[in-house]
Structures are given as C-alpha cells and as structure tokens.
Amino acid sequence: QVQLVESGGASVQPGGSLRLSCAASGRLLNMYFMAWYRQGPGKERELVASITIGGVRNYEDSVLGRFTISRGDVFNSVYLQMNNLRSEDTAVYYCNAVSAGVQYWGQGTQVTVSS
Q1: CA 79 to centroid of chain Cα atoms
Q2: Looking at the predicted structure, is the pLDDT value of residue 61 above 90?
Q3: C-alpha angle 23/16/69, rounded to 5°?
Q4: Rounded to an integer, what distance in angstroms lies between the CA atom of residue 87 and that of residue 111?
Q5: pLDDT over 90 (residue 6)
Q6: Is residue 104 pLDDT above 90, yes or no?
Q7: Rounded to whole angstroms, how far apart are CA atoms 67 and 60?
Q8: How far apart are CA 61 and CA 100, in angstroms?
Q9: Averaged pLDDT score across all residues of the chain
Q10: How far apart are CA 30 and CA 101, in angstroms?
C-alpha cells in the first residue's frame, strides 16, 4: 500500500501563488509516475500536470507557463508551484502516483482563488 499526503492548499486572490506538496510513503515499488489532478465545482477530475521518474513533464494547456511540477531528490515527493492563479483554478487538488502498476490517490487539498 502507498499513502499520499497533500498539503499547501489555501485561499488566495487572483494573481497569487501557492505551492502544493505531496509526500508518498509505504510500500513504494517501481513508482515511476506522479501527478496532480484537480476537480472543480461541478466538473470532472482532470489531469493538471505529471512527471515521470525520468523527469518528463506534461501539463494541461490552461496551466502552461503558470504551473510547474517538480519532484524530490528521491522519487517519493512531488510539488506543484502555481503562479498567476485564476478563479478557474479553484478546485480540490489531488496527488496521484502509480506504483507497481497500481494507482493511488491522496485525500485532496482545497485551492480557492477569489477576490
């Protein structure tokens, strides 16, 4: 089993910044992929950004140039630096990891962007 714990969610004004963190623990076997998803009010969960153990990054189009995903020195933590936040970024952000072919999710952290 793998446990994912997110932190860093908060309420900010438009244009503000936040940094989300996710720490993985437990039986980490062949973990090669970590990502951030989000689910806004009345919306489906969507992939925001992902990173592989080799450092390959992918981003959802609307966050390109504003969000940056990074990983710890050991591939058991992932971060999401979010700049120039917009109201449409309001969502619960979930950490996701794939280990030994099994997908795991964190409990989510709320990000609210509002003036």
Answers
A1: 7
A2: yes
A3: 35
A4: 10
A5: yes
A6: yes
A7: 9
A8: 29
A9: 94
A10: 8
